[in-house]
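**Archive record**
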Amino acid sequence: MSKKKITLTEEELVAALQNREKIAVEALYDMYSASLFGVISRIVIDEATAEDLLQETFVKIWHSFSSYSADKGRLFTWMVNIARNLSIDKLRSKDFKNNSKNQELENNVTFIDEQRNTVYKPELMGIKELVQKLKPEQKSILDLVYFKGYTHVEAADELGIPLGTIKTRLRMAIIQLRKNFN
């Protein structure tokens, strides 16, 4: 027999969370886990990491609920911001970056395909060859920003060139790639 999902109004849920009632945790999970997992998994592609972050999100909601104010916005918006911020923090963490950097560029395409369960799509073939035709300075920036998840500032630091140069070269690379699709 399946367990019935608990649904409360936002006011009832807020009151239950303020009173630290057990039903609040159950209702919170039943009502919002799917939505929050969706937010997290759009930011963090790895499913296991996203599941861990969902759990962290609920723990943080429980422990920091005293900072929630209905005057400042809806409960769901506050929870989405917590999930989003934890996910972004995870992406920016040294451990996560080091694990990501250790994968070769060649393996990134395979890794992403496996994580997203993508299938062979002939219309996408040839992208690698198009990127190879770019200038070396454009390829290195594309590699860092799009394949390794660096921010523009981090890419500038890594390559030892000004932020403006990174942005200009990245824009020029994208314009060059777009010419192939018009």
Observations:
- The two ends are 56 Å apart (CA to CA).
